[in-house]
């Protein structure tokens, strides 16, 4: 089992009711699922808990056999570097680093930088011509492909993608999504894709829906 959540609950100090109520879910190694739900239903909150960016109030959360509950900030940061990769809607590239520097960044942090793997990813994602450029010189679709390369270069077991194509037009969005799926499949990583798009959700074999903090 890659991911196991058992009755996870989360509130924020200023929310009256919990944002997540007793969320339980399992994902097998290499499993892929789409997570949909209305705005405010708790999708990003759930992704943040799984990615170790925030902590649950109660419940159990295990990734690749590691219980996240007792981990401190440093432990959760280690998990993000080594096991989980997160791709955001806003790309979050480092503006002062070239495309090549951005692609290598997370793998270097994780202590597993492999230039041959970077080159392979850059080729697969059509970025070979752009390696010396800086993020501001790229289109949105190109920037998101760099963000995908950066995440996959670090060899995560689980990829969390929060509206990864939300800033792209439909054609670029489909192309970027196909590349992301291909690469995740190739590495046998798991994927959780948060999306508002029915079209994108339908591409994945499994779908979960959050309604006011409960999975349906
Ligand atoms: N850091 C925070 N502090 C307080 N409340 C928060 C915080 N983050 C999210 N919330 C609240 O928690 C609820 C769920 O937010 P979340 O971002 O998880 O929803 P979402 O389903 O991802 O929404 P969207 O589709 O609009 O991104 C919302 O009511 C939001 O206002």
From TrEMBL:
Alphabetically list the UniProt keywords. ATP-binding, Hydrolase, Lipoprotein, Nucleotide-binding, Transport
Q: What class of enzyme is it?
A: hydrolase
Q: Which CDD domains match?
A: ABC_MJ0796_LolCDE_FtsE
Molecular function (GO) terms for this protein are: ATP binding; ATP hydrolysis activity; transmembrane transporter activity
- UniProt domain ABC transporter: residue ranges: 3-215
Give the EC number(s) listed in the UniProt record.
Answer: 3.6.3.-
Q: Which InterPro entries match?
A: AAA+_ATPase (IPR003593), ABC_transporter-like_ATP-bd (IPR003439), ABC_transporter-like_CS (IPR017871), ABC_transpr_LolD-like (IPR015854), MacB-like_ATP-bd (IPR017911), P-loop_NTPase (IPR027417)
Q: Which GO terms describe its cellular component?
A: plasma membrane
Q: Which PANTHER family does the annotation name?
A: IMPORT ATP-BINDING PROTEIN, TRANSPORTER, PUTATIVE-RELATED
**Which protein is depicted?**
Lipoprotein-releasing system ATP-binding protein LolD
Name the lineage.
Bacteria, Pseudomonadati, Pseudomonadota, Alphaproteobacteria, Rhodobacterales
């Amino acid at each position: 089992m890659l991911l196991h959540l058992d009755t996870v609950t989360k509130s924020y100090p200023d929310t009256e009711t919990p944002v997540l109520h007793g969320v339980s879910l399992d994902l097998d190694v290499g499993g892929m699922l789409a997570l949909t739900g209305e705005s405010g239903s708790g999708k990003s909150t759930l992704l943040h808990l799984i990615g170790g960016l925030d902590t649950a109030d109660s419940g159990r959360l295990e990734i690749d056999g590691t219980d996240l509950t007792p981990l401190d900030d440093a432990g959760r940061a280690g998990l993000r570097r080594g096991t989980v990769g997160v791709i955001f809607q806003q790309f979050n590239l480092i503006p002062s680093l070239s495309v090549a520097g951005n692609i290598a960044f997370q793998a270097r942090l994780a202590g597993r930088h492999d230039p041959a793997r970077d080159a392979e990813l850059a080729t697969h994602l059509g970025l070979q011509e752009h390696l010396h450029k800086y993020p501001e010189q790229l289109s949105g679709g190109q920037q998101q492909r760099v963000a995908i390369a950066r995440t996959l270069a670090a060899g995560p077991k689980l990829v969390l993608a929060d509206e990864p194509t939300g800033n792209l037009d439909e054609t670029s969005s489909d192309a970027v999504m196909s590349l992301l799926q291909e690469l995740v499949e190739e590495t046998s990583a798991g994927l959780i894709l948060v999306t508002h798009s029915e079209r994108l959700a339908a591409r994945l074999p499994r779908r979960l829906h959050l309604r006011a903090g409960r999975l349906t």
